[in-house]
Amino acid sequence: MSHALTGHNRPQRVIEATQQANNTLPTATRQAKYAKMAASPYRFFRGSNHLYWNDVWHDWRFALFGGWPETQTWLQGDAHVYNFGAYGHHDDQVRYGMDDFDDALIGDYQYDLWRLAISVVLDARENAELDPKAIGKALKKLIKGYYQTLANHVDGKPVHAVTLDSAKGTLKPFMSKVADKQSRARMLEKWTTLDEQKGRQFAERPGKLANLPADVASQLRRLIEQEYQQTLQQAVKESDPHHFRVKDTARRLDAGTGSLGVERYYVLIEGGVEHEHDDIILDVKEQVPPEAFRLMDKHQQQAWRKLFPNEAIRHAAAFHAIAEHPDAYLGWLTMNGKVFSVRERSPFKKDFPTHKLSGGKSYRKLARQWGEILAREHLRGAQALNQGDSTRFAKAVGQRLKGREELFVEVVSTLAVAYADCTEQDYAVFIDHFLAAGTA
User: Fold this and answer.
1) What is the mean pLDDT of residues 396-415?
2) Domain residues of the chain, as ranges?
3) CA-to-CA distance for 81 and 352, rounded, in angstroms?
4) Which of 91, 96, 373, 391 has the fewest CB atoms nearer than 10 Å to its CB?
5) Would you state the pLDDT for residue 276?
6) For residue 294, what pLDDT is reported?
7) Exposed e or buried b for every residue in 299-318, given b needs 16+ CB within 10 A?
8) Which of these ranges, 2-6, 147-151, 213-217, has the smallest mean pLDDT?
């Protein structure tokens, strides 16, 4: 007797969920995304955030250490090791933290912490090549770094980002190198060319940039020079009427893994007029609902839409809530029925190369800092949701953990390792069905 009555068929679920999440993409884009996801289990994890949210949305373990309205905050929504990195905006200061809010939403803090912990296991196996014991130690540091940071802020002390001045351990030389080797001038040299007649234009970068049809370029130019500026929280260079003059536009190709397939443009604007390197590259990116949105019930979705009439408004709200120094160019626009976030392309964008870490000790130290940074970003998110008060969130999580901190470490660590194992199984199914069979 072989009747599958319960429908527990994980391989089939992985295949169907992957098809559903990517079926609207053009064939070539879908194949490019699958090729990126095929690189490793960790790459697959980064490209299949929908699977994670399907699996954890109503997980009973949330009730052990959270699951209260007070333990909710602004979440990054796609927390993983490579969503941490160096960044910097209009003030040209290098910082380190999370700088991607495409999947941001309001929810229980554990959604982010679990996903980050799972990514640590996958990254440590793949890039740092750590053994299970060393990975367990790294997870312990990550989780302790998180809850101890919350405990240190129950009195409402200011929450600061990691800067070049405050960076510790391996982050210090990494950020110094970014500050030394990357700049606005070098970014412009990489992405643009300077023509005596035409001025600065986007460079020919096959596979990275593509020319826009004249009508799309014209429409985008008008939107940047007019409507978009009304969405800025603070006026930028009000006294300079030429600041937002569009010099060139281009389609951005092949960026990211999970976001591959969303429309994306680069827009070159005048910025300052005193120097050639004052020009600004704006990153205009289509915003779609985060993965968790489709899992909400009708009432939750209606409440969401009341809070955030469109997804770019939600993206901007998250950015302002979580980032200590939000981008001055952060805004949004609508074009051809789609909504787009607008932000400055950071001259200092750089991921930390975890494969260069020398052994378990240096990885542990960095993992602790990831936990601390996530906690600080959750504190800022909670502050935005609670009229400037982050202590309510910090105290609520502390209350749920009190006297059970070691159990918390054990539960999250066990979950992270087990889910990483499951991800490796799912990855094998993905490879076998979509790549080996050629059904992308």
Assistant:
1) 98
2) 10-84+99-154+361-436, 183-344
3) 9
4) 91
5) 57
6) 94
7) eeeeebeeebebbbbbbbbb
8) 2-6
pLDDT in tens, 428-440: 999 999 887 555 5
CA 383, distance to chain mean position in Å, is: 20
Per-residue HEC secondary structure of 172-187 comes to: HHHHHHHHHHCCHHHH
Instruction: Characterize the bridge pairing of strands 338-344 and 192-195.
Output: unpaired
User: Which pLDDT score, from 0 to 100, does residue 277 have?
Assistant: 62
Confidence check: pLDDT of 413 > 70:
yes
| Dihedral (Cα; 389, 369, 85, 38), 10-degree rounding | -110
Q: Looking at this protein, which amino acid is placed at residue 96? A: Y
The torsion region of residue 104 among left (phi > 0), alpha (psi -120 to 50) and beta comes to: beta
End-to-end CA distance of the chain: 34
User: What local confidence, expressed as pLDDT, does residue 1 receive?
Assistant: 47
Q: Check if the beta carbon of residue 340 is closer than 8 Å to that of residue 285.
A: yes
In angstroms, the CA 378 to CA 102 distance is 16
Find where tokens 């309001």 sit.
Answer: 106
Looking at residue 288, what DSSP letter applies? -
Q: Which of 320, 329, 333 has its CA nearest to residue 347?
A: 329
β-pairing verdict for 72-75 and 95-98? unpaired
Lowest mean pLDDT among 91-95, 217-221, 225-229, 235-239: 235-239
Q: Are 147 and 405 in contact (CB under 8 A)?
A: yes
Mean per-residue pLDDT, 108-129? 98
In angstroms, the CA 341 to CA 331 distance is 6
Q: Judge whether 425 and 11 are in contact, CB under 8 Å.
A: no
Is 290's pLDDT higher than 90? yes
Tens of pLDDT, residue by residue over 167-185, are 999 999 999 999 999 888 8
Q: How many CB atoms lie within 10 A of CB 359?
A: 11
Exposure letters 6-17 (e unless 16+ CB within 10 A, then b): eeeeeeebbbeb
